[in-house]
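Repro:
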Amino acid sequence: MTSHPFQEPPMPRPPALLACLVLLAAPALAPDLRVRPDPNHVVASRLAGAWEPDPELGERLGTKPWMERIEFAPDEGVLAQIPAEVGEYIAKERIWQAGTVRYLERGEERRGPYALVTLTGNTIAMLYRSRGGEGIDDGEGCIVTLVPARETAQDLLFVGGDFNNEPFRAYRRVATR
C-alpha cells in the first residue's frame, strides 16, 4: 500500500500505558483567570459597595432575602485564590469583575472571592467558598441584575438563584454615612 505524496506519514503513538502515566503525572494547570472590564457593563460598573434587603420590593416579589447584607469589593487579585478544579467552570468565560464578597447570613458573616461572568445571557456572580473547611472547594452561581437609578445611592440589586425559574430577592444600596 502506498501513501499519497501530500499525505503525512502516520505519527507513531506511544503505548497506552505510557500515555496514561504522563497524564496522571501532569499537574493540574490553573486556568488563566483574569478580569476584562468594560465600563458599559451595567452590573460590573455599579456592583461595588454594600447592599441590604429592600422589604417593600421583597414583599412585592413574594421573597425573603437570603442574606441580611451583601458587600462587593472589587479586587482582581482574588482570582489567584481560586483552585483550577473549581475555576475551570468559568475559565472560558469573560470575567467582567472579581473581588471579595462579604455577607451576613443568619447573623453569621461569610466572605470569599467572587467572579462576575455572563452565562446563557445572564450576569452571574460566582461565589467561591469552602464546604469542606479547608480552602476553596466549591463555587455557587446566582443570577444578578442591577437597576441603576439617577443617583447611585438609589440603585437596586436583584439576586436570583442559579436557574431562571427561581424568584429574585431585592436589595437596595446601603446609604453611606
